[in-house]
Write a structure and sequence with these properties.
By secondary structure, the protein is α+β, with helices and mostly antiparallel strands. It has two domains: about 100 residues, 2-Layer Sandwich (Phosphorylase Kinase, domain 1); about 130 residues, ATP-grasp fold, B domain (D-amino Acid Aminotransferase, Chain A, domain 1, 2-Layer Sandwich), CATH 3.30.470.20. Strands 8, 9, 10, 11, 12 and 13 form a six-stranded antiparallel sheet that branches. Strands 1-2-3-7-6 form a five-stranded antiparallel sheet. It has a two-stranded antiparallel ribbon with strand order 4-5. Helix 1 packs parallel to helix 6. It binds cytidine-5'-monophosphate (C5P). The site of cytidine-5'-monophosphate has 13 residues, from strand 9, helix 2, strand 11 and strand 13.
Length: about 240
């Protein structure tokens, strides 16, 4: 399948139309950004690691009844996906308190959150992704009450499946962000990506960080090794790409 027209170039991914109007090609680039895109570096093969990790996670979710936009991974950094009209909400699920939660609220860093916290942020770098609530979502005409319920239900299901999936790989799923979109029939599907870019992942034994937080903290020379560690633990040898 060939790329036709570039329809969206985000901070780390480019989306192209294909000959099939219901499908897109998503190219995962080697860019890494932090601070709403204020800092940007290129990391060798990052796109391939993230696309392969994301494809694997989407397949695991599909096997567990969560519909995603994933169709195929013809190249390590190229995903064929169902075309979605994305909903501009970042749905965040937190199992352990850290990050912006402990910066903004009097809650102890590292505290277990049971039940998890579910948060919705408005996806807009210009406004620095402010937190939403139901009345804001309605006033901004982003989603209906029924759609909000679907997002919450799906995000919690994803959390349930992935906490177990990562635990089996010796990793704690601390928190993560997901995005959803509507397909041509109006069904809400998981879109975007699930990778160490948008999750906090800690080694279960050492609590060592295995995600983009390293880059946010300026540990640029450690971050790819962390991504490769996640890749090595969750991608079976026969599904690994040639490096
Ligand atoms: O920074 P904060 O603690 O709010 O992040 C919560 C989770 O959401 C983290 O896993 C982070 O990687 C993810 N996130 C993201 N994109 C954003 C904001 C948060 O992937 N714009």
């Amino acid at each position: 399948m060939d790329k036709k027209e570039l329809i969206n170039s985000g901070k780390v991914k480019s989306v192209f139309t294909t000959e099939n109007e219901d499908e897109v090609i998503i190219e995962f680039r080697d860019d890494m950004t932090a601070g709403d895109g204020a800092r940007k570096e290129v990391m060798d093969k990052k796109g391939a690691y993230n696309a392969t990790i994301s494809a694997k996670i989407f397949k695991v979710l599909e096997e567990n009844g969560v519909e995603t936009q994933f169709i195929d991974l013809p190249e390590p950094n190229v995903m064929v996906a169902k075309k979605l009209e994305m909903i501009p909400i970042e749905v965040i699920v937190r199992n352990i308190a850290t990050g912006s939660l402990v910066r903004n609220y009097p809650i102890e860093d590292g505290k277990k959150l049971d039940p998890p916290i579910l948060q919705m942020d408005y996806k807009d770098d210009e406004y620095h992704d402010p937190m939403l609530n139901r009345s804001l979502i309605k006033a901004l005409e982003i989603a209906s009450d029924e759609e909000i319920e679907i997002l919450i239900e799906k995000a919690l299901k994803i959390n349930e499946v992935l906490v177990k999936f990562f635990a089996d790989a010796g990793i704690i799923l601390v928190d993560f962000k997901v995005e959803f979109g509507k397909d041509k029939d109006g069904n809400i599907l998981l879109g975007d990506e699930i990778s160490p870019d948008g999750c906090r992942l800690w080694d279960s034994e050492t609590l060592e960080m295995l995600d983009k937080e390293l880059f946010r903290k300026g540990k640029d020379n450690e971050v790819m090794n962390a991504y490769i560690e996640v890749y090595n633990r969750i991608i079976p040898d026969e599904e690994k790409f040639d490096v």
